[in-house]
Amino acid sequence: MKNVKSTLIAIATAIGVLASAPTCVFAQDTATDNGEGLRIATGKRGKGYSKLFADLRSVCGAQVAITEVETEGGLQNLTTLAANRADLGFVQLDTLQDMKASDENIGALLALMPLNTNLLHIVAGSDGFTYQGPKRMGGMLPGEMLTASVAKFSDLKGLPVAVVGSARALGRVLDRRYAMDLQFVDVETDEQGLAKLKSGAVAGMLTTSGWPSGPIQKLNRSANVKLLQFDVAVQPPYQLVRKNYENLDTFNHAFLAAPNLLVTRPFSATGANGKAVSILQNCIQRNLKTLQEGRFEPAWGEVKNIADTAGWPRFVGVVKR
Question: Which end of the chain has the lower number of beta carbons within 10 A, N or C?
Fold first, then answer.
């Protein structure tokens, strides 16, 4: 009961963060110039969800009109879908499970297909985190400047961290599960989080993306940052996945990973939107090998069974034979 209560508190906190954050939803037209077609909520340009959308547009755009709805990521994708400002969206399974009780429209979403796993990228400064300690002499003297060594996720305990997109919710769930006492600083983009990290305002940044992450790939050895290993016990639906970032000399690195789904609002299979979703679903299934073996995102290679939606109810459209 305590774990359920903690999760609900974390969900409520994340919803409050989204409600107070400035709206950041932009439609990018594809296939048509007037925004017609299926609206797919993605995330920030250059990150995993947006790249997957670009692949879908390349392979299936001639068969079904699709429009990108740019958001802050999977968490906002759910609220965007619930408000009928998108028709489909990319989301982490854990976020979907945690949020389903917060809005009946979220709970009614259906899985179109499974996708890759999203990795929690934990970024910290190479030289640790410098902060001012408690005041001395009864408050008469300022505290001494202290430097905390930050080499792994558990070292962030009690320190300020910037959280981006879906990591706003995931970070708070992890904080309560592992009693980390993290001090959250919510930001809209990886670039804002990295700026706060480099200025010394935070000890780390939490951000989620499929591998490889565009913003992380842009970093180089002179950036004076490093990726932290996730070093605490992992429970379903999470898993540990090892990946490499050669640009940061990071190899065989342990990331916390959560499965992704492409979800849709529960359209009637015979309605206009339902038929369009069916066309997209069939197109992806027919062209999955092309997506996996062609010049597309490596994330498609993680899709093994298009019908395996990890227990989440699946959209069943009109199957073409």
Answer: C
